[in-house]
Each structure stands twice: as C-alpha cells, then as structure tokens.
Amino acid sequence: MELMRVTGRADGESPRAGRTTLTAALAVAVLALSSCGVETVSERRKSTITLEQAKAQVDAYLAEIQAKLPVEPLASTISDFSDMECDHNDVGPHGRKETSRGYGFGNVPAESRTEAAAAFRTLLMGKGFEMAPEATLDWVKLKNPKDKFVAVLDGVSDSSRNLSLNVSTPCVWPKGTPPPS
Questions:
Q1: Rounded to whole angstroms, what are the CA distances from 129 to 18, 66, 177, 180?
Q2: Is the Cα torsion angle 171, 131, 72, 65 positive or negative in sign?
Q3: How much is the pTM?
Q4: For helices 110-126 and 51-68, what crossing angle results, to 10°?
Q5: Which of 63, 88, 151, 171 falls between 20 and 30 A from 143, CA-CA?
C-alpha cells in the first residue's frame, strides 16, 4: 500500500504500464476536445448573412405567419428588434449577434388559440420547419434546419389567455463576415 501512495502504482505493476494508461487516457481526452473545438471555431469563422438581412428575414417570416393566423396582433405589442451577442462563453471568435422580434395578440379565446396553433404548425412545417424538442404544452417552437431561424407561438394551452408570436435568428456576423484575426 505504501508503494501505491508514493508511486501511484500497485506492487508488481511496472512504471511503464501506469504511464501508458495515463498517456492513452490523455490522448483520448485531447483528441475529443480538440476535434470539437476545431470544428466549433471553424464553423464560427464562416461567413453568414448580415444582421440586416437576418432582420429582413424575421420580418418576412412574421408577415407570412401573421397572414395565415386567424387573429390580429395588437398594434401596441409589436416589438423592436432585440439584438444580443452570441456564444459569449464559447471559444473562438466573438462578435456574432442574434436578434428577435415579435408581437402579442392579447386575450384570445381558446378556439382561436387552437386554430392559430394549427395554422402556425401547418404553414411552417410545410416550409421545412421542425418541432423543437423543448416545446411545451403552452408554446409551439419550430426551427428551420436549413437557415436556423426559430419561430415560437406562445400561450396556446387551455390555461393561457395571452397569445404571442416571436421569430429569432441564428447567430450571424453583423456585416456577414468575421472580423480579421
């Protein structure tokens, strides 16, 4: 036992076996971390649409969705764009932004909420959007796997009264390209 505490290996175990095991474990960990990090940094360095183009797409999605819903938004609830920095805790280049915009419909009867949720799903799933796994009974969240935009219709459950719609962008470079490194 004394040998184990001092050298980190059991009686009869060669020093080489312990180093080989440790080296193998470190190699696996480094490969896993570096391949993930390299891919992440590589992905983040790619050009995107500009923030203004992303905002235009949000407005286009909102207009298209609104045209299919059986309820009208309250004029006072149309929000300004909410721009935020992306991935502030990740490694790699920083400065990408995401934005969102939406509006509320106020107190909507249950039947209209049900119709709105059905129209929302039908329209967007017909455009290739998919259900997001984190959706709940109270809100429907759909994500476009091609352009990564997300649309949420909130307040669709029986316990809700206020219905709202929000569309958000993926992370984009404000000018479409990453800053020089």
A1: 52, 16, 26, 34
A2: positive
A3: 0.74
A4: 130
A5: 88
d(CA 181, CA 178): 8
Query: In angstroms, rounded to a whole number, what is the distance separating the alpha carbons of residues 9 and 22?
Result: 11
Q: Cα separation of 33 and 31, whole Å?
A: 6
Residue 127 pLDDT? 97
Place of tokens 């949000």: 58
pLDDT of residue 38: 37
| pLDDT at 92 (0 to 100) | 65
pLDDT for 13? 55
- φ, ψ for residue 50, nearest 5 deg: -80, 165
Consecutive sets of 10 residues in the chain, 181 residues long: mean pLDDT of each? Answer: 48 50 34 38 84 97 96 87 80 84 92 94 97 87 96 88 93 91 70
Instruction: List the beta strands (DSSP E) in the chain.
Output: 82-85, 97-107, 130-131, 139-143, 150-154, 162-168
Rounded Cα–Cα distance for residues 150 and 154 (Å): 13
The amino acid sitting at 143 is K
Q: What is the pLDDT of residue 1?
A: 47
Report d(CA 20, CA 11) in Å as an integer. Answer: 17
Local structure of 168: helix, strand or coil? strand
Say how far apart CA 153 and CA 160 lie, in whole Å.
12
